[in-house]
Design brief:
There is one protein chain. The protein has about 270 residues and is of the alpha+beta class. Helices cover about 30% and strands about 30% of the residues. It is globular and about 60 Å long. The termini are far apart.
Length: about 270
Amino acid sequence: MIGISTPHGEGVAEMTFFGLFALQHRGQEAAGIAVSDGQRARLHKDEGLVATVFTPSVLAPLTGYHSIGHTRYSTTGSNAQRNIQPFLVETMHGPLAVAHNGNIVNATALRDELLTRGFGLTATSDTEVIALMLAAAGGRTWEERLERTLPAWKGAFSLVLLAQNQVIAVRDPWGFRPLSVGRLPHGGFAVASETCALSTLGCADIDEIKPGEIVTLQGAEVRRHQALTPAAQAARCTFEFVYFSRPDSVWDGHNVHHVRQRLGTELARE
């Protein structure tokens, strides 16, 4: 999962592609990219690997200043075309695209509530539930709508949202899934599930997004706000160190490869 916002808008889709390519190991079923030029959002997503889904001719019309991308590994919802992310919906506040890494454990109850309120759903993914709840939330800004909706989501989630003129990232209070932010070399900022994608894009000042924190990227500006109080005891997914993450990524201040070496040492000792 990746999100990018630049003040100049040159090659934003290509940067998103390279970031997703660096994250290909996190999901190989499908891939998608949504881009906004400040007025209109465009989306392309399909089954297959990143390099197969996004050819130069597909990337060419994806022009804009802000983008998000996702590689799919099925959790909630089946491995079906309709569940490919990002999800893009039109709202009274403009377009909204959502990409999600995690698992909302009360998604079924939230989905039933949306259906009772008359919403029509097209997929079985908890990500669509998140998108529709945000679209219906009150508030002056997307940050306010997100902050009002966050307490309803129970479980693990790292999210990137694409609005008309910004990208917003947020993590659950337990910090279960990784998410980091960095400054792009030619202006703007990027967020990604792993630091390896930010390093691929040449980012500097890479920093982990805190549990419960909302980070807004808008061209040359970045805003950070602690929306939810972090859980008293963090619940980071151990499998990130065991399996999911690329060896050169850094999470919780630890290089993944070095952690795996230490795990092997401990295993041999036992």
